[in-house]
Design brief:
Length: 301
Amino acid sequence: MDNVEFDREPVASLTTMVMAFGGWIDAGRAATGALRHLARDLPATRLAQIVPEEFFVFTQERPEVRLRADGGRDLHWPRSEFFAWHPDGRDGLLLFCGPEPHQRWQTYTKAFLGVAERCGVRRIVSLGALLAGAPHTRPVRVTARCTEPAAKSLLEAWGIYRPPTYEGPTGISTVVLDAAERRGMQHVGFMGQAPHYLPDAENPAAIETLVTYVARLLNLSPDMSQFAEAIQDFRVQCDQAVARDRATREHVRKLEQEYDAAAGDEQQPLPGGELDSDRLMRDVEDFLRREREGGTGGSGA
C-alpha cells in the first residue's frame, strides 16, 4: 500500500476506529492525549504508520533527536501511527494518532482510509478539542455529532448532540470523515473545549473528559485513576497564575458567570476587553514545561 508501512499483517475485524489529529483541533492536547491514554490502557500494539516524507514540511514539523542510555542518538520523524486492540470474543479497535499533515491531503486521506478498509473499519470515532471561552474552574464541555441514528439517540440522551452548523476553513479530520462517509463508513465525533487563555497547556481535565465519553460509547473500562491528581495540580497552578493578574482574574470570573448562566447551552461568544495572555503563560511556564516533558497523556503510545 502506497505511503503506508505495516508492522504485521492486519486482521479484518477491527470494526471501529478511534482517531485523533494533533494541531488545529487538539486544544490542550486533549484529543491526542485521550487517544494515547486509550492505546496504553487497553493495551493496543502498533500496527502501521503513514510514511511522513510526502505529507510534512519538516521545517514546520521537525524531526527530533533523542539520546539513548548508551550515549548514542536516535532520530525520530513525525509519527502518524495506527494501533490495534484485539479483545477476546468481540470485534477489535483500530486507533490512530498523528499530527495534521501539511500537504497532499487527498493522497493522505486515501492512504489513511486504505488502512481502515483493510482492517474492516465500519465506524470512525473522532476526537477533537477547540480553544473556547471555557473557564478552567468548571467541568469541560463536550459536544458531539454523528451519522449513525442509534448513536444520535444516545448522544441526545447525554445532552451533547449538536447538528453541524460550522462553515469555513476546516482540518484534516473533516476531510477524512467526508471521504469515509462516501465509502460507507459511519462516524461519531466528540469535540471538547479548552480555555483559550491557556493555549499551550496540556489539559488533563479535557483529556479525562474525552476518554470518559469514548469509553461510554464503546463500553470500555479504562483506568482513570491517574487523572485526579493531575487535574488537581493543573487547576492549582492555573489558579495561582490567574490570581497574579487582575485583568485575567476578571476575565475568568466573567467566563464563569457565562458558563453558569448557559447551563448546558452552547458556548457563548468570548467577551471583549484586554487580556494579558502572555503574562499568564509566563506564570505557568514551568508547569507547562513539566506537562510537555511527561505529563498526563503527553508521552507517545
